[in-house]
Design a protein that fits this description.
Elements lengths: L7 H4 L1 H12 L1 H7 L1 H4 L3 H7 L5 H5 L4 E6 L5 H13 L3 E7 L2 H14 L5 E5 L12 E7 L8 H11 E12 L6 H13 L18 H11 L2 E8 L3 E2 L5 H10 L3 H7 L3 H18 L7 E2 L2 E7 L4
Parallel strand pairs: 1-2, 1-4, 2-3, 4-5
Antiparallel strand pairs: 5-9, 6-9, 7-8
């Protein structure tokens, strides 16, 4: 586990909750969320300027950092894109979970065994890089799990080269994200929504385009773009019970919300979830809609 020099991250109970659950939830997240979250990757890479923009236009080697790499889908797609479009790049992946880094390394050694990748175990809020190092920084849903997202944006600005771009994804707010809307409404109506959790940033903060623009501008980014990827669907979830298990075993805050229910509340939540899932998916005949928001910006040239 990494922390900043003051040890602040080690004392951060929200950080500890996230780290503990991401160390243990690797397989459940990868199987449950992996097919869904990978759908945002093409837009993320495009908005991060991969294969285009200033660096490529001037013949400069691109350097890509994937923050909160998880099981590695962003780096996997970035390498494939570099090969298919014939641009030169280096690749780095950072995560605070050693278990996710281990899985990502295993996945990438299988899909791109010949491509060097720098694997870094570290904190996105205090990244171990000196100066202006990267031309592109991507973060696929990782910003949702930081106790200080603005610190991550500041750090990204610091380590980007002039003209470099950052792009990060976050879930759209319910009811647009039907999976989250289902579980949160079921807990609210059939369980106890007031489970005490460590203080953390609003989960859907960056679903708001104005908030993303404000946050990126405050750090110094320009040429800001906020794009909704509304084509994303959770097509590997086939029942309410499967949805419940994925959210219980493959999340952090939602897991703690569900674990905080007593046995009677849990049974009521599951029953309510089954009813609502059937209604919203028309008896299971369509997948859950799960759009996301990709926000991006560029570090000025001067």
């Amino acid at each position: 586990m990494a922390s900043d020099a003051s040890g602040k991250a080690d004392e951060d109970t929200f950080y500890q909750l996230e780290l503990t659950n991401w160390q243990r939830g690797v397989d459940a997240y990868s199987a449950g969320f992996g097919p869904l979250t990978s759908q945002s990757v093409p837009t993320l890479l495009e908005k991060a300027g991969l294969g285009g923009g200033l660096a490529a236009g001037h013949g400069v080697q691109q350097s890509i950092l994937d923050v909160a790499t998880g099981q590695g889908p962003v780096i996997d797609a970035a390498i494939s894109k570099a090969k298919s479009t014939n641009f030169d790049a280096t690749f780095s992946a950072l995560d605070f979970s050693s278990n996710f880094l281990r899985l990502a390394k295993q996945n990438l050694e299988a899909s791109h065994p010949e491509t060097p990748i720098a694997w870094i175990e570290g904190d996105a809020q205090s990244m171990p890089f000196d100066g202006e190092t990267f031309t592109s920084i991507c973060c696929n849903f990782g910003i949702l799990h930081l106790s200080d997202p603005d610190a991550f944006l500041f750090e990204s600005y610091r380590i980007l080269k002039p003209g470099g771009r950052i792009a990060f994804s976050a879930w759209s707010a319910p009811p647009a994200t039907e999976g989250f809307d289902l579980i949160l409404s079921a807990v609210n109506d059939a369980g106890n929504p007031a489970i005490e959790l460590p203080d953390g940033p609003p989960f859907f903060r960056f679903s708001d385009a104005e908030e993303s623009e404000r946050s990126l501008t405050a750090v110094g980014f320009e040429d800001i773009d906020v794009t909704t990827v509304d084509s994303m669907v959770w097509d590997n979830v086939e029942s309410a019970d499967e949805l419940y298990e994925i959210l219980l075993e493959g999340t952090a805050r939602t897991r703690e919300l569900l674990r905080g229910q007593n046995a009677e509340q849990t049974d009521s939540i599951k029953e309510e979830l089954r009813k609502r899932y059937s209604e919203i998916t028309e008896g299971g005949s369509r997948p859950l809609c799960m759009p996301c928001v990709v926000s991006s910006g560029q570090k000025p040239l001067n």
